[in-house]
Amino acid sequence: MKFLDEAKVYIQSGAGGNGCVSFRREKFIEFGGPNGGDGGRGGDVIVEAVTGLNTLIDYRYQQHFKAERGGNGMGKDRHGANGKNKIMKVPVGTEIYEEDGETLIADLTEVGQRVTVAKGGNGGFGNAYFKSSTNRSPRNANPGQPGQEMILRLRLKLIADAGLVGLPNAGKSTFLATVSAAKPKIADYPFTTLHPQLGVVRVDEREFVLADLPGLIEGAHEGTGLGDRFLGHTERCRVLLHLVDGMTDDAGRDYRTVRAELEAYGQGLTDKPEIVALSKADSMTPEEIKTQVAKLKKACKKTPLVLSSASGQGVPEVLRALFKVIDKTRDSLDSDEESGEAAWQP
Fold this sequence. Notes:
Elements: E1 6-12, E2 45-50, H1 58-61, E3 64-66, E4 86-91, E5 94-97, E6 104-108, E7 114-118, E8 149-156, E9 162-165, H2 172-179, E10 197-203, E11 206-212, E12 239-245, H3 251-265, E13 274-279, H4 286-300, E14 305-306, H5 315-344
Parallel strand pairs: 1-3, 2-4, 9-11, 9-12, 12-13, 13-14
Antiparallel strand pairs: 1-8, 2-7, 5-6, 5-8, 10-11
Helix pairs in contact: 3-4
């Protein structure tokens, strides 16, 4: 299934049904009163986050969504039926924006979370509603209110525990394929990965979700290469795994290039916890590894890990380091939620 993380859709809620003008007409009843029913309410347009989806590709082929109109009122005090709601199912992590792409309406981060983006119109009153002591036979009824219509922009940000960043050909897809059941495309040319990939990683009888993102190059924030459009998926990650190709001329320079792009993108990416690792150790001599580690340590101000996805060298250590940070962030979030709940208790 092709990955799509942005879509534009047109939605329209249902209009309300019209009220009815009717009078009671039966044998031996000379002056029957008004008995026109009210119109039904129009259906709402609802967006719901569901499990089992990880792309917005469905909204490329269907872009118009309309809820059902309410039924008209009828005689004998029969009200019109309410229109059926239109439910749009999206992956968890979907943001809903207005047409300008900047005004956020909702951010669906949990399974089952719902938001009504367009409410249906109310049904009109029938003439029975207008009956009074001074107006025994009203001959007027209200039309139903129109529904709402608008254009929405859907933007998906994958929810993963850890995210892989680095230059093209740094070994990110190979690492994901090694530690999970994901099968990303792997080749020896830049930009093999064109769309984000997700994999479930298992280590020490525990699991977490790892996201592989297309590689960044210098000037990505200005649109060079694939640009920085996929960096939005890292905003929800708890920790970043920065892979640096050990076969490059200067590992420190490559590290600084990616960090500069993260800083230019903003959104707090440079403040996230980061694990730095030198990849492709199986293709390097011990002297080369020592030289590259020294350059990388000087650039990132910490001792990088060394790994080889092909041979498995250093992979468990990297996974355990990721899990340690993930657990720490989870504990801090849980403590924040508990303190917040305690603060609001009466």
